Amino acid sequence: MNEFLAAGLVTALVAGFLGGGHCIGMCGGIVSALTFALPPSRRHPARIASLMLMYNLGRISSYTLAGTLVGGLGQLLVSNLQEVARILSWLAVIMLILMACYLGRWWQGLIRVEALGQHLWRYLEPLGRRLMPVTHPGQALLIGLIWGWLPCGLVYSMLILALSSGSALQGALLLLVFGLGTLPTLLLTGALARQVTSFFRQPLWRQASALLLLAFAFWQAMPLLGFARELPF
């Protein structure tokens, strides 16, 4: 495993986990809908778990597809213009810093970046609404596939990282690992919606998450600044 990919996978996993509060804000509504859409008589833990797992499978699959497409685009750019690789790497670092500022609520300008995806989302969102209420795992999978394209600054930050990888395969892996990083939060949200939402909205968690993500951004920048970066693997 090359150094860029190893560092990128660690960053993607941590970013996915630390962005839990943001994920609840973006996907919490649909997760709650999956949990409570069933009538009380059919609201069994196993059935709810199957809906949650299928929704998240669809969502992470869409992330992975997006990472593949964007990584493939980066591969085309880097193969033709070598200097582009360094520019894209810096862009990935900048996006991580902006995401840290967003999570910590120090600066909310990343909302403008999320607005860029609204053009596509206005066509996809009605398709997802037609699948509601969700009572079958197949419906949950389809909604997950659609909701994976929901405009999200955190996802866009990871897509920039995938773009800078210059590889369709690496882009897919980065977004897959990022999606897996978000999984614990969203699964817990389905089971313990009120408690989890309250925890992730605490200022202390937001500030700690932002500072850690900021540290990972600078870690990503170290080789660009000429410093060695040691990895334990």
TrEMBL record:
Keywords: Membrane, Transmembrane, Transmembrane helix
Residues in coiled coil: none
Keyword Phosphoprotein: no
Transmembrane segments: 6-39, 60-78, 84-103, 140-163, 169-192, 204-222
Record has Membrane as a keyword: yes
Urease accessory protein UreH-like transmembrane domain boundaries: 11-218
PANTHER family: HEAVY METAL TRANSPORTER, HEAVY METAL TRANSPORTER-RELATED
Name this polypeptide is given: Urease accessory protein UreH-like transmembrane domain-containing protein
Organism expressing this protein natively: Marinospirillum celere
